[in-house]
Amino acid sequence: MIAKTKFKSPAFEAIHSAAAGLYSVDAIPQETMRSFDEACLSNVSDLQPGEIKALREHFNVSQPVFARYLNTSVSTIQKWESGAKRPGGLALKLLNIVQKHGLEVLA
């Protein structure tokens, strides 16, 4: 399965598409294409411990239920919420998705 690229906006998607076309025919160098990638693709925002707890509480779920949705342990949720550990990679991406689209997208 190929992941769908997420752009900051439809305008950025159009700009990136044009740049990718130019890159595919060697009209722009790889370094320039990387600049377009950085400028046009959306970033995953870092979440603070309080934000993670507030996110969970917003959906009125317990730590065990939240952990189940995110396919992680209760201990990990507790560590994220206390600041002892920070989510990264896929976990951070999932939290951003839940923040933007709601918990039901993971159901």
Overview of the molecule:
The structure is a single chain. This protein is mostly helical and 107 residues long. The chain folds into 2 domains: 10-40, no CATH class; 49-106, 434 Repressor (Amino-terminal Domain). Helix content is 61%, strand content 0%. Helix 1 (10-24) packs antiparallel against helix 2 and helix 4 crosses helix 5 (74-82).
Provide a quick synopsis of the model:
With 107 residues, the protein is mainly α.
Any chance you could write out the topology, listing elements then pairs?
Blueprint: H1 10-24, H2 30-40, H3 49-58, H4 63-69, H5 74-82, H6 89-101
Helix pairs in contact: 1-2, 4-5
Question: Which structural traits does this protein have?
Answer:
mainly alpha; 0% strand; 61% helix; 434 Repressor (Amino-terminal Domain); single chain
Q: How much of the polypeptide forms β-strand, as a percent range? A: under 5%
- Stated plainly, the CATH topology of the largest domain is called 434 Repressor (Amino-terminal Domain)
Counting helices, strands and paired strands, the structural category is mainly alpha
Helix content: 55-70%
Mean pLDDT: 91
CATH class of the largest domain: Mainly Alpha
Backbone shape = elongated
Provide the low-confidence segments as ranges.
none
- Helix tally? 6
- Specify the biggest β-sheet: none
Provide the domain count. 2
- Number of distinct beta strands: 0
Order of helices and strands: HHHHHH
Report Rg: 18 Å
Gap between N and C termini, in Å?
Answer: 20 Å
CATH architecture term of the largest domain: Orthogonal Bundle
